[in-house]
Sequence to fold (206 residues):
Amino acid sequence: MEKTWITGFTFIWKNQKEVPSITGYVIPEYVRSFEQYKQEIVVRYSDDLARLGAHRCLLYKDWVNSRGVILRFDRKALEVRMMDEQECIKSDVALSCFLRALLRGMIMEKTQLLPFEVLVRDFTSVVRYGLNAKVLHPKGPLARFVCRDFLQTAYRNATAEEKKYLPIIEKRIENGSLSDVIKERVLRRAQKTNLNEAILDVYSEL
Fold:
């Protein structure tokens, strides 16, 4: 599979471009055992780092892995790399509640896993086009439709406390992220003035 690099749309693929095996395709590969994980992922990027002269303190460390989900053997846990939106703490908590409830639901309902290549292609599309991205997921054809289905799964499997935060996620799915809202307002304001003034006006309101 050819790796796609989207210049200007994401930093996550490029922040370790000298050792791409650290990040992989961001979407974690499927593994069936701890040993397979260590050999095919940890050992691979450690060998690549060693060839470049990296200090031994970086070799064979699970935390060096920059995929979206990593195994933390020291904590006996899966570490899910969630985005820190830096909008407000409540928004970040909502995202955490959504993810926990969704994962719980996918396990309880035995959701069928999609091929790795499909996940990578959908992720690449979402990075570029957001919720309006066209995806191969069976709940598509748009990423927004998939997220709506995920939200219903989360609602069915959320705790009472988690459910309090899910309306925030629902609003995000329907209205877009903060950057989407800002972009929409800037473009609307730019119809009456120049773009620079429109940007200043919108951010001044914020």
